[in-house]
Amino acid sequence: MGIPFWKCVTAMTMFLVLNLHNANVHGLAVMSVDIGSEWMKVAIVSPGVPMEIALNKESKRKTPTAIAFRNGERTFGEDALTVGVRFPSNCYIYFLDLLGKEIDNPIVDLYKKRFPYYNIIPDPKRNTVLFKHGESDDYFSPEELVAMMLEKAREFAQDSAGQAINEAVISVPGYFGQAERTAMLKGAEIAGIKVLQLINSYTAAALNYGIFRTKSFNETSPMYMMFYDMGAYGTQVSVVSYQLIKSKDRIAPELQPHLAVLGVGYERNLGGLEMQLRLRDYLAAKFNNLKLTPNDVTKNTRSMAKLFKEAGRLKNVLSANTEHFAQIEGLIDEKDMRIKVTREELEELCKDLFDKVVLPAKRALEASGLTIELIEQVMLSGAGTRVPRVQDRLVKDLKSNQPLGRSLNTDEASALGAAYKAADLSNGFKVKAFITKDATLFPIQVTFDKEVIDENKPAKQVKRILFGHMNPYPQRKIITFNKHQQDFDFTVGYAELSHLDENEIKCLGSLSLSNIKLNGVRDAYSKYQGQEGADTKGIKAHFAMDDSGLLVLQNVELLVEKTVTADTEEESTLSKIGNTISNLFKGPEEVLKEEKPVHEAPEEDPISQASNNTTNNTDTLDQTNSTEQVKLNDTIPISDSKKNLKVVTVKETIDVNHEYLFVLPAQDDDLQNSINKITGLKEIDLAKSRKETSLNNLETAIIETREKLEQPDYSSSATEIETRSILDKCSEISNWLEDDGFGAEAEVLDSKFDDLKKIVLPVWERTFEHAERPSRLEALNSALNNSNSFLEKIKNTTLDDTPFTQVEIDTLDKLISEITSWKDKQVEEQEKLPKSVDPVLTIQTIAIKHSSIEREMRYLMTKFTSWKPKKKEEPKVKAPTSQADNEKAKTPEEQDNDSTVKTQDDVEKSTEHEPSSTIEDNAESESPLKTDKPKPTELPIVEPTKTEEKGDTHTEL
């Protein structure tokens, strides 16, 4: 049955609407990147696709954090590690923890000891780490290496999502300080990625756990969980609480899940890497003891790289097996290594490490103020927790009543939790709210000197805590300087770090974060000195700890309260009640986000008023745009009694000179140079990829051409001259490739491909024509047969009973005849030609004829399906309305015969004189139009078939 035209239009409209909707949706995808010391995991959220892990080029769910440079080529992941086995200094690994570190940092010293084959030099401007690559003049900073990995992560995400992605949430270790977090953001900037937020890895894992278990939370009592995360480099343990709280919606508040980090403990060097290094050194010592060669294997960097890789494999195997053989072919001097290692030997090597397993957990409990009995469960995360001895020590030393939790995916929990946060922060998705509050791991304080009153006495230094240990963030705070009326400066830095050991404090680098100098303080005060009704409330510095854990100085201002007169009437009682009620409806989130004042010193008195103002006795205001009503004094004239005194807040901005004291990443020209370097490397990779594609296309074309010419269908479509020419061209290009073609650029390879294509294309087109012609002719014949059937039906019906005109019928008849005649003639001519000659009956011409008959039939069918036949009106016979009227209508003879019995003929005659309505119905049911005209479903419809327009010829090469 044919599809009515209006249905086609409707379907097409809906298709376009859906496509437009999808087009608007494209570009909304976001990603998360869990870039660890050893592995990188990428997760995406795109329209119609919930959180999922993006696969790499090898279709694996995680990629080694490794970058190698060799012969001008850059490789990532497994390919980079393969290069690193042969050329260790060319492959950079475990560089994440070098972010934001100066050259003399203990972490840098440990890195040099672990990987002695890298040439690490100080940055001449920032004294940070630079990798000098081989004998060349290439240098790479840790920020640049991180940018390369983030760029590769975006490539994986875009391939999985099928669209561009520029926004991301990146997970970082919780022990990253201000320098490391700033460096990570700079690496993302170099890669051209907009970071929505940096999230601590343990917070992301806890979020991933919580989003699937909201039904187990309640409003009254929080649920406490511990997340134990042992990764490749370090171990982090967090204690978190889950609870339902009411939203800040004043109209319809709802319960929302809330995640708060209560305590954190960590060991920076307790992880799989240290175990792998010890196993590497153990294998090296065992091999040397075999005395297979006089050379020491530890002195050979390539051999040590092979041992390092084998130690990593062996460590993973021994997590599931009690013993295994370490095997390396040609370790050194073409000598093979085969050494049996048991799990007990590995555990003995790492005995002191296993003794530290429980320490981060105890520190986290201590920081949270909880005991292990209150913890619902200890949830394992991170690949290091798969080591059996780690789990045994946790069970033994923690003495938890619950078994260890293993429901989280140890590799992907952080990436998936960060992906949920990315979807929440992006503008393209609406997810269920899940409030997260992280905790400050390193407290931050402000240090300043009291204003000097007696120049003979030394200035007293004052310290004020801004964000204490385990203070929640994001959060804003204010510190007020009440007695400074001259320009002054203060320092922001880490506060007391007694919860850390001495070496860990050194790993943080500079404990001073920034020096802030305030300019124009005296001028700001002088504006309001002597003004009646002006009361200065001190210099207020507004700080914020944002979602990424970065400290931000938002602004510094002088706060002044002025008493002014206003003609407005006193605030009504109803208005006061309304304001009070609105304050009662403040949600917990609003309370958490309010700026909290940090007083300069409890014993200090407020700054005295500069003017003789006896009417203003208001307290210090910490919030902006706040006012208070002040009672009138008795000394105010009676004529002014109808006017009110109003306290308004005036803010005078203070200029700030901000000097950072910790290690800053590259800025200005250095930053642009890094961006240009990464862009240049990307262009080289693209050129390499394009060259590989062109070379592959050319080699494939040569092989396929030779194979096809051996097939009868293709060989019969070419003349002997064409066949010889094609084979000669294939030989010519093959010889060129063997000589110097593999070093040619993509443009040269493409030109060779085009040369081959020019001589091959005519033969392939003929083959395609001969193969497709029968099916296309069959479709044309079917269309002609259906059209003929349709035409015969119309001719058997009068024009009055159809919607068609005689011109339309004649046009269809003529078109059918012309196409039939053309087809028969062309088929006859084509059959006379050999296959090696260009055909006279082409697929394109058949498609044009097919399209013309379909177009005509579509027009007629559309007209027919929308046509409604008119009913014929028959003259009505007036029926008698009563028995008396019937009697009057009869003749005397008929009246005399009424008493006689009616014969069969009389009955039949009486049937013919039934009421007119019955006659009309019968006449309508027996109408020729109803009999001869078929129903729409019975018409032979020409089903639209796929036609080949110009340019649609299919060519294979």
UniProtKB/TrEMBL annotation:
<dbReference type="InterPro" id="IPR029047">
    <property type="entry name" value="HSP70_peptide-bd_sf"/>
</dbReference>
<feature type="region of interest" description="Disordered">
    <location>
        <begin position="593"/>
        <end position="628"/>
    </location>
</feature>
<dbReference type="InterPro" id="IPR043129">
    <property type="entry name" value="ATPase_NBD"/>
</dbReference>
<dbReference type="InterPro" id="IPR013126">
    <property type="entry name" value="Hsp_70_fam"/>
</dbReference>
<feature type="signal peptide">
    <location>
        <begin position="1"/>
        <end position="27"/>
    </location>
</feature>
<dbReference type="Pfam" id="PF00012">
    <property type="entry name" value="HSP70"/>
</dbReference>
<dbReference type="InterPro" id="IPR029048">
    <property type="entry name" value="HSP70_C_sf"/>
</dbReference>
<dbReference type="GO" id="GO:0030968">
    <property type="term" value="P:endoplasmic reticulum unfolded protein response"/>
</dbReference>
<feature type="compositionally biased region" description="Low complexity">
    <location>
        <begin position="611"/>
        <end position="627"/>
    </location>
</feature>
<keyword id="KW-0732">Signal</keyword>
<feature type="compositionally biased region" description="Basic and acidic residues">
    <location>
        <begin position="927"/>
        <end position="936"/>
    </location>
</feature>
<dbReference type="GO" id="GO:0005524">
    <property type="term" value="F:ATP binding"/>
</dbReference>
<dbReference type="GO" id="GO:0005788">
    <property type="term" value="C:endoplasmic reticulum lumen"/>
</dbReference>
<keyword id="KW-0143">Chaperone</keyword>
<keyword id="KW-0547">Nucleotide-binding</keyword>
<keyword id="KW-0067">ATP-binding</keyword>
<dbReference type="GO" id="GO:0034663">
    <property type="term" value="C:endoplasmic reticulum chaperone complex"/>
</dbReference>
<feature type="compositionally biased region" description="Basic and acidic residues">
    <location>
        <begin position="903"/>
        <end position="915"/>
    </location>
</feature>
<protein>
    <recommendedName>
        <fullName>Hypoxia up-regulated protein 1</fullName>
    </recommendedName>
</protein>
<dbReference type="GO" id="GO:0140662">
    <property type="term" value="F:ATP-dependent protein folding chaperone"/>
</dbReference>
<feature type="region of interest" description="Disordered">
    <location>
        <begin position="869"/>
        <end position="957"/>
    </location>
</feature>
<feature type="compositionally biased region" description="Basic and acidic residues">
    <location>
        <begin position="945"/>
        <end position="957"/>
    </location>
</feature>
<comment type="similarity">
    <text>Belongs to the heat shock protein 70 family.</text>
</comment>
<keyword id="KW-0256">Endoplasmic reticulum</keyword>
